[in-house]
TrEMBL record:
CDD domains: MFS_SLC22 (cd17317). One of its GO terms (molecular function) is transmembrane transporter activity. It is a multi-pass membrane protein. GO terms for cellular component: membrane. Signal peptide: none annotated. It comes from the Eukaryota. The lineage of its organism: Eukaryota, Metazoa, Ecdysozoa, Arthropoda, Hexapoda. The keyword Lyase does not apply. This is Solute carrier family 22 member 8. It is found in: Membrane. The chain crosses the membrane at residues 167-187, 199-218, 224-245, 257-279, 285-304, 372-393, 405-425, 432-450, 465-484, 496-518, 524-541. It holds the Pfam family MFS_1.
Amino acid sequence: MPESESESGGSTNRRQSSVAVDVVEQIHGSFGRWQLRTILLIFLCKIPSAWFMACIIYTAPYPWKGELVCRPSDWNASEPLPQETADGRINNLWQEERSTDRLFNVDVCNAYAQTLARGFVSRHGQEWNATAPKDDSASSLPCEQVEHTTAYKSLITEFDLICSRRVLVAVTQSFHALGALIGGLMAYTALKRISPRRLMLLGMLGQIFCGNLTGLVDTYQLHIYFRCLTSIFCALMYTSGQFILNDITSGQARIIVITLSELFWSIGLVLLPGISIYFDDWSYLYVAISSSLIVLVWLHRWIADAPRWLLRHQRVEAALRQLLESATYNNRKVPLTLDVQLTAYAKDLELAAEQKRSYCRIWDGETKRSQLIYIHWIWGCAMVLYNITLLMIRNLGAAQVHVNTAALGFAEMVGVFVGLYMILYTRRHWRWAGNLMIVASLSTYLVWLLPETERNSRRVGLELIFWLILKLANSASIAVLTTCTGEMVSSENRVLLMLSVVTFSRLCLVFCPFLSVLTVIHPLVPITIIATVGWIYGLALRRLNRYYWNTEQPHISQVPTPNTYRRHSQMILRRCSSASTEVSGYSNELLSNFERNMAVSIADIWHINFYPINECDSLAEMELEKRSEELGTAEAAKSRSLETI
């Protein structure tokens, strides 16, 4: 038994050492022209997905004043309907002029009898035959029929989603989130057998077919069914694309690519208003969005497959063909025994894939369970904020919805770059993301201080500022989460952790659209709730900062003054020059070159008082060794002799 255990352990060590030599990365490198082509094409696939996700803003807009005509049950059917006036507006017989949209939204579903009677008398000069209630403020007549007079044919007018049926607009978006949840789990399972490139093509074709049916059906039940089905194919498409991006890049290039992939969601939001203005029917908008993928299907031929997936499934010839193409475009050297190395590497990957990975492994105690609970909560809250801020932009006013949507897209783009800066150039990216989220969320509460005036362009612009601040901070946090969540666990468990947090966040998205219904209480209730959720998960981000930070970034020292620099630098040179009495045996030119080329960090300047003399010697040795490697000439031999000083 001990011998067999030692043999298996030795084979495991040999297998791990062979896997450590990544032939794929040696051939195509971390980034190059070959990767750039595939990356851009995969990024473009996210734009139609963003359109389909956010198109509810334009397919189900809130009705304007005068676009709904309410007919109570006691209305005399022989009387004519309200007619359009000379200024282009619709006379609504039951509605008085109101100062806010909040009162309008209440009055849409209940026609007040006295108001209706007074309007009828003033406009037609005769008594209304319905019995008016004595209490003008308390009684109301429910609408028997609501007629739509808008020129734009939306989901609201098609399926009569008003009053008690208004919640069905949120149900539509919930089914989209449900499709993303199911699609993500299906993609994880399908990638075990289907190549990412082929799965991506299946997602494109499915989105084209089901997306067109979503806009062409004439019943609400079929609409939400096909919307969920289209969302499943969207998830298959961008999940497999993300898999390819992770496989063909590495190092810092992978961090930048994964972070910037969120940028194209924002670009999709910016472009969506420009597309919607060309269509006056919600069905045409769905057809246009879904049909745009036909171009991407044609471009799919230039999307590369994941080379490690090909090797893991023993498709060595296809992987070899792809790596040769990569080496050609990136101008990299190819080993003469590449096919042999790929065959051996494929066996190692196959053996590693045979090891069963249980979901419970991420909860085995290697990472504290409290930290895993934190990261799941943070992901759920961040995705809820991302989705709700898009849906609630409809509340700011239908007249400004195009400008508001584009502004949210630009705020997202800025947030992505802020998050990328935190990842690359800060040590405590979790803390900075949490601080930004807390400040943005707490400042959102100031929206209650805005005066309760008519919802004109000025009022909408002031309220939009708070939405943009919250959107920017949330996008920066999502960028940090997308890139840095995997550092919480070992490399073997990163896929399972990302699957877990993304699945949990999409589960939260299934229920979050119902927050938009709370506008019947007050228009600012939903933004207050998401602001509260924002600063709470900002505190959770700061909590994670206690355990994880970027160790590659050095601690920023205090900036020295010029006098401090001169004093400490002379002290370093004096200590190193006084370490030996043989310095006078060398030429002054050689010594001056040594002093001129010697460099230290700012931290070394501040900590000079803690350096003993022998550490100065080692500092000089390191500098001279570096010079000798760069020169490689006879002067390098002379400079190496200075190490004895």
